[in-house]
Amino acid sequence: MSEAGDTAFARPDRPAGRPADRRPLLAWAVAALFVATLMASVAVGAIPLSPSELAAALLSKLGPSEMTPDETLNAAIVWDLRLARSLMAVVVGASLATCGAAMQGLFGNPLADPGIVGVSSGASLGAMAVIILQISTFGIWTLPVGAFVAGTCTTFVIYALARPGVAGGDNSRLLLVGIAVNAIGGAVAGFLTYLATADQLQSLTFWSMGSLSTARWVTLAIVTPPAVVGIALLMRWSRPLDLLALGERQARHLGVDVKILRRKLIFVTALLVAAAVSFAGTIGFVGLVVPHLFRLMIGPGHRWLIPFSAGGGGLLVMLADMAARTLDPPNEVPIGVIMGALGGPFFLWMIWRGQGQGRGA
Amino acid sequence: MIRVENVTLRIGAKTLLDAVDLTCLPGSLTVIVGPNGAGKSTLLSVIAGDLEADAGRVALSGTPLARMSVRRLAQVRAVFPQGSEIRFGYPVEEVVAMGRAFRDLPVAEDARIVEREMTQAEILHMAHRNAQTLSGGEQARTTFARVAVQQTDVVLLDEPTAALDLRHQERVLAAARRMAAEGATVVAVLHDLNLAAAHADSIVLMQAGRIVAEGPPWQVLTEELVARVYRQDVCILPHPARDCPVVLTR
Fold this sequence. Notes:
Largest sheet of chain A: none
Strand content of chain B: 25-35%
CATH architecture of chain A: Orthogonal Bundle
Radius of gyration of chain B: 18 Å
Order of helices and strands of chain B: EEEHEEHEHHHEHEHEEHHEE
Shape of chain A: globular
Number of helices of chain A: 16
Largest sheet of chain B: 6 strands, mixed
Order of helices and strands of chain A: HHHHHHHHHHHHHHHH
CATH superfamily of chain B: P-loop containing nucleotide triphosphate hydrolases
CATH class of chain B: Alpha Beta
Number of strands of chain B: 12
Number of domains of chain A: 1
Largest interface: A-B, 38 and 39 residues
Oligomer: heterodimer
Distance between the termini of chain A: 36 Å
Strand content of chain A: under 5%
Shape of chain B: globular
CATH class of chain A: Mainly Alpha
Number of domains of chain B: 1
Strand order of the largest sheet of chain B: 6-7-8-3-9-10
């Protein structure tokens, strides 16, 4: 079809190759930072450990050996307290960040975040109800199940009110629904606080501010399976998630059964939020900040965005928890405060950059 | 092959489609024309499976729509919709490749076909550009390439030329004719009667949810009929270079 005299258009050459693929390099960078942060977060705390002490403590589980009382103490600190906590930070961060990425795909809106939209507050409400009403139908699983059920219901409600394509401007509508849901969550939380005993009150404060201080191997064992399953499913559904960017109707034209996908995504995002919220309370903005940054660096394709978000989210929450533990020892600054201090301005920056339309990336 | 039998669609008290019958054969390009609100896009949406008719039947390639899953439908028909959008900054090339995402065709072919159709649509030079930064016309060409890579038997185009300049209007309709020549059943909704006249094998003229005329351009585009349906007087002349009618407002 190439007519003469029109070569510039009829035979357009590719621009000087495709943009350099930053993914491998970035993957190594994230992995290196991840390991370094994990080591640092285990070493840092009320009793700081030197690298050699840390190595000795980490290796102490490998075989029975003579240990000085100091070394026994260090091993206990590392293995019984800090390692479980750091890994919990990873699971929570990975869940929140991937959940954010998936919700942004589902809503077609880069401002969707489990915290802003209200899913976190819905899920933590479920967990609070379990504590205050002393429900124990499912044994140790009651708490995450409560968070999951409440999170799923909340997401359905939000989606029904703010689904993409509904008239009235997606972005503002989603954020307005988020404000309303968070207000309701706040009211119910207030009522539960009113009902609570002094003991329960403490765990409630902890929900609203977020904290990893209750992380133990048991709680880690409870939240890891739903987190791993949720992230694995999102990676499997990365292609249909990509197609959703064209809007529901066009995704359907291309073979995505949007109704089914939507339902699956709502369940999985609720599962991930439940995993994050059950034992750590509400930690905001992770789901907003992390996917957004990676979208800028590697593009919006979910096949890579989901795993990168998982790694980046784990990294971010580990860092925030380290800060929480070390800013004012021996007290702990609530991690929610730290994430809010980081995430709030970031959110403003996104809005400013998108000229109020929230069209990031 | 598209077979529409006695399709009626109402929304509230309004009848959008009123007992429409239409058969489009493989290897043909059918163009639906008509004034605003005649039901052109609605008919296309019913054929595409987006809207469900209140009465009547639609079959694509011999299979009733109702019996096809969403995934199956994507193997049979491709749709160029009115008003495309993309919500995140995917590169143009990836947007085009989305046409193949759930197509049961050899994956090894994907890259070649995507490149071929991008060349056809003259968007190859912007393959790595963020699709959100495209102009309306570039977006339409990207969407057309996405429809083309789907390589389906039935191709439905809803105002594919609306955002395009002269050259690309011609190119898109030439491409649609080529698809038909290769055996596809192509249906396009167009506003420009002259484009319809120049490219259609058959023109379907709609008014108020009904088909008022159907046939080759010379037969459907008569001064009397166009004036009545559009409520606008026109002259119809032979095209000086092509063997087709030209419609001018009077």
